[in-house]
Structure formats: C-alpha cells, structure tokens
Amino acid sequence: MKNVKNADYLQIDNQKPRIRERGEAEILPIGLAFDKYDWVKKQIKQKPNLGYFVWVKKSSSQELMSCLMISSKNQKQKVINLMVIEPKVKARVLEVCQTEKGGLKGEHWGKSLIILKEDSNLNLNHNHEWSKTDKVKMKLAIEMEEGASLIKRYQCVKTPKDLEIETKIKIASKAKANLKTMILAKKGKVNLKEFGELKDDKAEAIIRLRLVGGEDSQIKAESMMRAKGKSVGHVDCMGLVTGEKARIKVVPGLLNMDKHSSLTHEASVGRIEKEKLDYLRTRGLSEQQAIDLIVSGFLEI
Amino acid sequence: MLIVDNLKVKIGKKKILQGLTLKVDRGEVVVLVGPNASGKSSLAKTLMGFEEYEITGGEIKFKDKLLNGKMIEDRVKMGMVISWQNSPTIKGVSLRKLINKTAKKKIKTEEFGISENLLKRDLNRGFSGGEKKLSELMQVVSLKPSLVILDEIDAGLDVKKIKQMIKIIKTKLVDNGVGVLIITHQEEVLRLLKPKRVLIMVRGKIICESKNYQKIWRVIDKYGYEKCKKCRLLADR
C-alpha cells in the first residue's frame, strides 16, 4: 500500500484534514465546498462535517490520492465525499481507507458521489485495509454522463468484522463502466450490493466480483444490472471458499427493459480443487503456499 | 537411488498395485510400459505421495530414506519430481510466476522452446499439447531433481516434438546424472532414448524386465500385452 504521507487529502480520525494543492484539481474539505458552491448544495442536501471534495478540472497522468484513516481507539469516522471529473478530462485516483493498526475498534461510515461528466475518463483504485475489530459501511453512487469511461477497482484483503458496501452506478449513452471488486475475507461478515443501470443506447458495463471466504467468514453479494436502450451489460461473480466454516452467497440479477439490449451473467462458488493443490505441491510448494498462490491468482482480474 | 519393494497400494477398496518391485539408479533411464489401466500412473502418483493412494504393504526408499508417509512437497525437496500427464489450468498464475516461485536453478526458457508469450499466460490455459509437455519438462528441470518420473510426456505429440522432448531429457537430465523413470506407449520414445531397462507392467505388477528394448517392443507390437500375460518366464509363475 502506498505511503499515506503522499496523500493529497489525508483525514485521520475526525481531525482537520491535511490537503495538498494540486494544479489540475480543487481539493477541499466537503463542508467548505458546500459553503462555496451552490451546485454542491444541490448534490448534498445537508452540510457535512467530514469528507473530501475533489473537483478535477484538467487531465493529469499523476495519480491523485486520498486517505481516510482511523488511528485512535473507538473512533467513529463519518464522511461524505464528492468527486467531479470535468468533461473530456482524464484522471487517475487512488482512495485508501484503513486503520493504522489492529484492535482500534473503529467505525468507518462513508457516503460518496462520483460524477463523471461527458467524455471524461476515470481510473479509480479503491483499497480498504481494516482489522477484525472494525466496522465499515460504505455507500457509493456514480453518475456517468454521455461518453464517460470508468475503470474502478475495489480491493480489500484485510476485511473488518463487518463490511457493508452498496454501489449504485448510472451509465448514460455511450458511457462505459468496468467495475472490479476483490475481497479476501478471513473472518467476519461481508455484505455487498451492486446495482448498475444502463440508461441509454450504447451504454456498456461489466461488473466483476472475486470473493474469497476463509476460516468462518460469511460473504453475501448481490449484483443487479438493468438495461434500457441498445446497451450491453455483463455480471461476473466468482467465489472461492477456502475456510472450513466459510460461506459465500452470490446473487447475480439481470433486468432487461429493451429488446435491443443484451445482458449476460456468469456465477460460480467453488472450493480449491485438490488436483490443483497437488499439482503445485509437486512443484515443491507446501499446501498453504499452494492455496495462497491459487487465491492470489483468483483475485487477479 | 529409488528402490520399491513389494509395494501394495489401494484406493478405497480397490487394489491398484499388488506387490510391485523396481529400482532406478542414478543417471539410469528406465522405461515402464503396459496396457491402459495397468497401474502405471498410479505407481507414479504413489511414488510422489498422493494421499488417495494408500500403501498397504511394502516400502519405497529414495536415497536410502524411507518415503512411506512423507508428503508430496517433502519428496520434491529430496529430489524426486514428476511431470504430469494431464496438468490442470491455474487461473491468474502465469507460468513465469510459478517458475519464479519454485525454481531451484536458473532456466533458459528458450532452450525448452518456451516463448515469452507462453510465460505470461495463465498456467496451462489454452496451452497446446506440445506447449503443455514442454512446460512440464521445463518445470521439472528447474527443480534440480535427482530422479524424475515422466508420465506420458510424449502423449499426443508428433515425431518432431517427441525428438525435441527426448533431446531435452537427454541433455538436461540424463547427462547430468538424473535418474529417469518414463511411462510411455510409444516405440519412438524407446528408439530415441535407448533405455537401459524396460519394465512391463500388467495388473499392478511388473511382470517382465529386459535390457533389450527392441526385443520387448517387437513382441508387444506383434502380439500385444496378451503374450506378456501368458509368458512362461513370468516371475511369479
């Protein structure tokens, strides 16, 4: 994981954020943006206390990084975030949400809105790293205007005690969205809900999930895609159960509202095949090393 | 180096190997032939320690150490390595990643006819028959073995590919003192490899052994393994 000191927006617990100025983007505490811009008020009804406002106005190859961190015991970090990418602008963003160390019993509650304006392009990596005493709840809404393009990669290989994520994405005409979610849960509960709406002609979306359930973890994932116009969508949910008491439930759903649109899905939840373990063991790896290698490959998408 | 004495093996209730004895010395090439379902691959997997093969009698010694009960990876660490007949696909793990993780010595991939493209691809995913076998052979060599078990490394290959394979076996293994136990159904392999000994396996036993591979193959070619089954020289008759 990248050093948080490099973050352009760093929020530790509920302290005042540290912000680094970036030429291509305006970065503010969300409360300040609420007071400054009337259009922000239209997006967010009540003035929030914590969270970031990132308004990317020019393209840049340099990654913009935000970090929301829990550093003290029993912290409840509640953030509202807004990110806007201007038309035809290309942006790369890394979001890190994490606990500084284990056993802090932190709570992280996040609500984010991302707006991709016409023909904009966003490559977003979102990494979570928690401890088994934390609780995390996140709601994300993404609005993609005509011709916008999004690659979003969410990864959590250190899950909290409870992880709830709800993602809603609206995709306008000619916009393309590629959402990848990779979760490796050793313990605890994970509840994922993803909803994609292909709003118009030539909208395209792929939702891919890779879920690994270890020990006694419980994972539930619902991925719903709805299509209108001549749009194309695909939902791909794969689960791998490695723990004796682990459970994974995946529910892919498709709703097609136009005879010209096409929606497909594939889903599977399986265990690691013994043959594959044996194969890697005949290359000298121990059983655990073989499992780790297969899991790392499974999470590669 | 490898001594198998009166080995009896079962899977569930089914008896697979029924008192099998063989040995392979350092740098020696031994070919194992026999009809389908005679237990050749089961022997290979038992030697490697696959858990489903339960040893009910006899012993396997490798480098003077008893292998019975040892785990697969421990046998590999001791220098015993196998190439798979049907190797599984492993998604997200490239051939390069696996080699980097497991190899005990540097390998020049081009010497095995392995392309850069193949190294990048998921292990065995969409590999042709020849690519799979070359990949197996490269992995085996990279583990710096003392003894290799090659389970039908020639299966499904054309003559040109078999020649390439045998050349690699000779130069990378046999010439370096590695013992080779090779399971095959093809005369071409015998002819090119010129093994010191050929063993015939039928119904879980070695029923014949000869230093003259040409003679053995002439009999098999003309009469099939039926002749071997009825042979008066059978050791246990």
**Could you report the average pLDDT of chain B, rounded to the nearest whole number?**
92
Query: What's the story with the biggest beta sheet of chain A?
Result: 10 strands, mixed
Mean pLDDT of chain A: 95
| Structural shape of chain B | globular
The fraction of residues assigned to DSSP E strands of chain A is: over 45%
Name the overall outline of chain A. Answer: globular
Report the end-to-end length of chain B measured between terminal Cα atoms. Answer: 28 Å
Order of helix and strand elements from N to C terminus of chain B? EEEHEEHEEHHEHEHEHEEHH
Radius of gyration of chain A: 20 Å
Walk me through this protein's architecture.
The complex is a heterodimer of chains A (301) and B (237). By secondary structure, chain A is mainly β. Chain A contains four helices and 19 strands. In chain A, a hairpin with a 5-residue loop joins strand 1 and strand 2 (18-19). The longest helix of chain A has 12 residues, at 287-298. Chain B is an alpha/beta fold. Helix content of chain B is 35%, strand content 30%. In chain B, the strands form three sheets. Chain B has a six-stranded mixed β-sheet, with helices on both faces. Chain B is globular, with a radius of gyration of 18 Å. Chain B starts with a strand and ends in a 7-residue tail after the last helix. The A-B interface holds A 273, 275-276, 278-287, 293-294, 296-301 and B 48, 50, 71-73, 76-77, 81-82, 84, 87-88, 90-93, 97-98, 101-102, 104, 122, 139, 143.
